[in-house]
Amino acid sequence: MLVKAPRGTSDTLPPETSKWAYVEGVMREVSRRFNYQEIRTPTFEHLELFARTVGETTDIVEKEMYNFKDKTGRDLALRPEGTAPVGRAFIEYGMASGPLPRKFFYMGPMFRYEKPQAGRYREHRQFGVEVLGSPSPYSDVEVIVLAMDLAAELGLTETKLYLNSIGCPSCRAGYKAKLVAHIQPKKAELCEDCKSRLERNPLRVLDCKQEGCRSAIVGAPSMLEHLCPDCSAHWDDMGRILAAQGIRYEVDNALVRGLDYYTRTVFELKWPPLGAQNTLFGGGRYDGLIAELGGPPTPGVGFGMGIERILLATEKGNKPIQAEGGVDVFVVAFKGADNTVGDTAFGLVRKLRKSGLACEFDPLQRSMKAQMKQADRMNAKFVAIIGDDEIAQGVVAIRSMVESWQKSVPAADAVSVLLEGVLDCAK
Q1: Are 283 and 345 in the same domain?
Q2: What is the pLDDT of residues 23-37, one digit of tens each?
Q3: Alpha-carbon span 382 to 405, nearest angstrom
Q4: Is the entire prediction scored with pTM above 0.85?
Q5: Are 331 and 345 in contact (CB under 8 A)?
Q6: Which helix (H) or strand (E) element contains residue 393?
Q7: Is residue 250 domain-shared with residue 371, that is, in the same domain?
Q8: How many CB atoms lie within 10 A of CB 186?
Q9: What range does the domain containing 144 cover?
Q10: How far apart are CA 312 and CA 304, in angstroms?
């Protein structure tokens, strides 16, 4: 039986891996500009972490989470998202007692058992940022601007920002009652999941994509009309800051995101050319999460995004990422009567690599024709040729694969000549 990768996972092979490296490099650079520091959390956590924070009525916990028992019977789960683990680490290492706010970014695999489709996998890599310790609307806007700058850096211009506020527990209670009263007469139109959620967590109905559920919420009351004074002031301040920066947005009253820990601000940054699955970034504020995990009351705000979807979008954008491949120099070694040629060639390869050049040679020392074909497949900029004649003369034959010239240089000068040639190609 042929063993294949599990459904919903994928292999990334060269040279496509270079596109990943490029995108991840851009993410690190943009995060550096905003003074975010990298944090790395375990791939699996205690199941309770996600049940308490993400929410027991969410699709993630009810249907999508990969959970299991370890050899001692502890309930564990592969992480489905990145915010709760960052919050757990924040508490565990006593970061609340240090200077605030703390600003983090992360990237790594997340796991959700959902229907695989373009840009959506059961194992996907996620990039996210978190700001812990700031209740200021400036922090909300900062993470939004970071997302927009990152998208623009990757050639994804003309993104659309969608915003909403889902208030806080104190102002949400009255809103939930009015939302239920609006939906109740249309309960029969709801999917089975939302019929249950209507009683337990009616905001989840707003997040459902089923046609009947979308129809049932038409004309539903807006959370923005039921905000308490503090939440209303936060919403107004954020709008003012965005306007001052010339950032346009649309209000989406049905935008609640799919996680229970959100409070006040929720947002999505979409890129319309991607089609139905066009949300690039999604996030918001979560002022109660740290306290829910047993830490001191600590406000937070952040976002997450799937790297696979970003890569899919860049293929359609105005700045397609070119897969990198190839080497700077390919050393061709003719097989002689003894190992002198091979040893000399390998020594040159080592010197070239130490000088910072990407270099390769054929350990099998096949024919000149075969090695030149290999150099061409690797998009080598230069070929350095060594045989018995070159060793006898103390030279290395250098051929430019870009400009099609060839010359012999003293063996002692080969590294400097090739280094200069590669640098000239980069200009």
Answers
A1: no
A2: 999 999 999 999 999
A3: 10
A4: yes
A5: yes
A6: helix 388-393
A7: no
A8: 15
A9: 16-168+228-316
A10: 16
